[in-house]
Amino acid sequence: MLSTPLSNAQGVPLSQQVADVLILEIRAGRLAVGSKLPTEAALVAQFEVSRTVVREAVSRLKSLGLVDSRQGSGVYVKAVGFSPLNFDAKYAVSKQAVIQMVEVRRALEAEVAAMAARHCTPADAKHIQSLMTSLDSAVQAGGDGVAEDVRFHSAIAELANNPFLMGTLDYLGQFLHGATRVTRANEARREDFTRAVRAEHDQIYRAIAAGDAALARQAATQHMNNAIGRIEQADPAFWQQAGEELARPLVSGLSAKKF
Fold first, then answer.
1. Containing H/E element for 122?
2. Same domain, 32 and 94
3. Which of 72, 97, 126, 245 could make an S-S bridge to 91, C-beta 3.0–4.6 Å?
């Protein structure tokens, strides 16, 4: 079997990278329902990783309901539809899980910003600017600005004028709001992070107010990329204390859901 090189992405465990490749193979139908996964030894050779990494990757596929083990036979692809919301709750307090949720935001908000730019009126632009002021005031008063941050991004989403998109965002809100709580708590710990977020919001606002869809998409994408970077720079103490505590309600919410 040909080897599959893994990326050098910082902060992404090898087991996660292996799992992601296998998930893509399942979704693309190259690993069909009912088919048997390659043996552990074959996967070790394919990805050039340890047996422990392979076992962790397969364990993740099991937790997502994509495969199951048959005693004495092997691991097989299950006839279960893939759900982007089928998060494994035990990973929800980890840095990687929050990053993955921000990646969901990035995919959505880039297009939301572009659509908002196409529909923005001067009155809309003034409203968004006022929400930025409210966010600044909340931060200056010592708050984390979570509610104000959510209102800022929600107002932009409303400008997209797409009820299906709004319905999707409303449904995802329970997860995205939780991720925002974590990112804002981390950003509030450093003044340089706070200044960077303010500048990124201003770039999004200016692009939307100017009606420049391409620039708005770019600014929103960069904002999410930078949010991921700030999470990756968070010191270990943050995850041992505030980060884990803030993410805990997310775990409870996921555990109570059945997708």
1. helix 122-140
2. no
3. 97
120-132 burial: b if 16+ Cβ within 10 Å, else e = beeebbeebeebb
Domain identity same for 58 and 99: no
pTM above 0.70, yes or no: no
pLDDT for the residue 87: 39
Reduced to 3 states, what is the DSSP secondary structure of residue 200? Answer: helix
Q: Identify the pLDDT of residue 206.
A: 97
Angle formed by the axes of helices 213-232 and 191-209, nearest 10°: 170
Quick check: 12 and 55 in contact, CB under 8 A? no
Amino acid 88: pLDDT: 41
Grouped pLDDT means (10 residues each) for the chain, 259 residues: 53 78 80 90 92 89 82 82 41 64 86 95 94 89 80 89 78 68 73 88 96 96 91 70 50 43
How many Cα neighbours within 13 Å face the side chain of 63?
16
SS3 90: helix
| Cα–Cα distance for residue pair 112/114, rounded to 1 Å | 5
Same domain, 121 and 153: yes
Contact 22, 77 (CB under 8 A): no
| Token pair belonging to 142 | 């010592």
Both 169 and 214 in a single domain?
A: yes
Q: Which domain covers residue 95, as residue numbers?
A: 89-255
d(CA 197, CA 250): 23
Element (H, E) at 116: helix 95-119
